[in-house]
Specification:
single chain, mainly alpha, 2 helices, about 40% helix, elongated, membrane, transmembrane, transmembrane helix
């Protein structure tokens, strides 16, 4: 019969140092809305999304025939 598998890095039962378990937060609806802040990456993604929508809207409004006939 085989014994327990050996873990060369000693990580059995532990998370790697770069993985942090998510802490549960029991917040009310009011506290969730006031405590949540956007990260710079989320703001940048929103800005890019808005720019793409504006670009698509402008492209859609251009005439299809470049000669104008």
């Amino acid at each position: 019969m085989a014994g327990p598998a050996k873990d060369p890095e000693g990580m059995v039962g532990r998370c790697p140092r770069f993985v942090r378990p998510q802490a549960a937060r029991n917040l009310t609806v009011e506290r969730r809305s006031e405590e949540r802040a956007s990260t710079p990456l989320e703001l940048f993604f929103g800005l890019c999304f808005a720019a793409v929508l504006v670009a698509l809207t402008i492209l859609e409004s251009l005439p299809e025939d470049p000669k104008g006939t």
